[in-house]
Amino acid sequence: MSTDYREMWKNLGLDLDAHDALLGVLGGAYQDIYLAQADRPEGMGYFDFLMSEVHGLRIQELVDEKASGRKIVGSYCVFVPEEIVLAANATLVGLCSGADFAMEEVEKCLPRNTCALIKSSFGFKLGKVCPYLESADMIVGENTCDGKKKAYETLGGLVDNLYVMDLPQVKSANGKALLKAEYQRFKVAVEALTGAAITADSLKAAIRTVNAKRSALHRLAALRKADPAPISGLDALLANQVFFYDNPARFTESVNKICDELEKRIEAKQGVFPEKTPRIVVSGCPQAVPNWKLPFIVETAGAVIVGEESCVGERGTRNLTDESGETIEDMLDAIVERYFQVDCAIFTPNPERLAHIREMAAAYKADGVIHYGLQFCQPYLLEALPVEKALKSEEIPCLSIETDYGMGDAEQLKTRVEAFIEQINGQ
Ligand code: BJ8
Fold first, then answer.
1. 37 CA distance to ligand 1 middle (Å)
2. FRET partner for 306 with CA separation of 20 to 30 A, picked from 154, 228, 278, 341?
3. What's this model's pTM, rounded to 2 decimal places?
4. Cα separation of 106 and 427, whole Å?
């Protein structure tokens, strides 16, 4: 990191020793997993810099925003609409965490059989190592899976600024009405937090800003259809992860810059892996920073990941919000329409997700799908079975894995992934 941020971290209430330990592990993992890759696009330099400053410069920016009166809203789910947050003159940051931390403390307040994503988020709070969480003026929890719902009841005792958003579980007219009512309630809460009333102009501008971010990722996704793949799955995943942390306009510009470079690579037939390398779509639970275990295993085993059917990926970003509304009411409706299409496994039934996996496998010319389920994640593990069955019946090879954030199963996973790639190669 270029500057000494210890004073800032101390003021945010971080445990400096524990935070040093976390940064040490993160830095080492980034070096071994990301910087060790060959022939990366030059534009990834921006993301390398951002990751090296993810607890430094980016936090300094948030602290500066706060000093100027802007509020920070933290979220654990892609259902929290960034458009509303931005329109009320606040900044949205993602809080999901992808590493185990302070597990002994965590297991004093959550059952052992809670998914790693929830446990990790608690570990970052209890271990006092997350400057995003500590910067947030409002933390939004959402009633999605049972694990999160009940965990937020406990989190409410650990933080004094938790706001819980209710979410539908069925894609019905009632479900949509609930989502709309909850977004209206959220709008009022964010306006109360910032003291800024959302106007038609501010909401329109916010919709455009978030659409631009998503469009840049759509462009990146489309370029991954090329063979040879112009960018690794690891690097593309990183761009999808940074989506949740970075300044929106700068993020959009940086992703578009990479896309310009990738277009040239595609023209020159320059890939990060040779042509005809087996192509994999990963589908399932979100992979938050620094959860890079599966893509690292896949891409060091002779395959390339070409798409993520995930909330840190296409499920989270695939649809744009209609920009044609002129009133706040019209625009809120457009936002509801957009988010209501997110096919999270908490919905029942959820046929859209299977359709989307099929669509992605075809669009990215995938040779196989790896279904990624976090241990104890009932919604995705339950959907894994019908997904695997359906894909296999259509002769799309599918490997279903269940894992956590630890490295204890890395060797076993590697063996299974290698066997899967061999199966694909043999076809
Ligand atoms: S919209 S996927 S971000 S809820 S892994 S905590 S589901 S037990 S993360 Fe998610 Fe929103 Fe849905 Fe997306 Fe529960 Fe499963 Fe844990 Fe999960």
1. 29
2. 341
3. 0.97
4. 45
